[in-house]
Amino acid sequence: MLNALKRRVVPLSSTLILVALIPFQALLISKVFICGWELNGAVISLFVSFIILPVVFFVSFPSFYEGNIEFLKKSIKYAILFISSFGIFLFIYKYLTSNFIEIPYLTVNVDDMGQLESKNIDRGIIFKLISTYNNGNVYGICVLMLLPLFCLLERRYLSHLLVKFSLFLTFSRTVWVGLCLFEILEVTIFKLMKRSILRWVIDLSLILLFVFIFYFIGFNFGFLLDSEFGGRRAQLSLSPTFFSKEPLEVIGEMSYIGVLREFGLLGLLLFVVALFTPLFFLKGEMGKVSLFGALLYLFVSLSDGALELIPVMAFYWGLVSIGLINYNLVDENVSH
To answer: What is the pLDDT of residues 26-47, one digit of tens each?
Structure first.
């Protein structure tokens, strides 16, 4: 009875993270009710991402993790392997047949059936590897966020290459930069894997081979030098205020700029506090890889954080809550 009661108590680390979220939650609610909003979907998404999901992951999930950690590890490992393999298959199928495989709710949104050709996923002679949201960046951001955790759980080198290759096929500048940052941080700070000189040579050779193959079939890498940053340059034109009194609209790809535009300087400060506070509680082996993944997401959010797409923030809060597993156990042991 006593042990069951203790498992229901929210650990101190989770409580402090939820407390750090309250100021931004209060600002979000105030903004909506005082200034109004333009799109119902945007408001619902923000409420789910910053009010409902944190409660779910930091209040309801800790006790679930405690008794199902091995199941959780296997599920994450095999899920990432599956979606990476399936994504590569869909990419190759589209290139060879010029047709998409459209499975509602799995490879395409219901409203987008038959319309994928019109999405912003065309890179000339190829189409990006995409998620159900029909956006290569969203797939890339989410998998990139989970990549350190995957590399800890899955030690096979070929599996790592498979997942990284799927990220390469997103042909997203944001994802490519994030993947480069992963390699740098992995070698210099986090050191998840032991790498020999031979593996470095193989990695570099494969990158050059992929680039050569796509260049040979006529792919234009000019998108890397796009001065408009894929349409994001216009988002940089803004006049920051302490608190924006305009009705809430959509937060653009550049998360920090979008929050600054919609909520003002105060909102940006509270947003940063809400997202960065969990990083101080990530300890131990699981915490280390969760910190790594969270940092990757917070960095690529400078370019594209897909903040208003609920699955992205679900992955972020889920990753952080997994990283608290060891730290929460320490809290409980101390309290005994």
So the answer is: 999 999 999 888 888 889 999 9
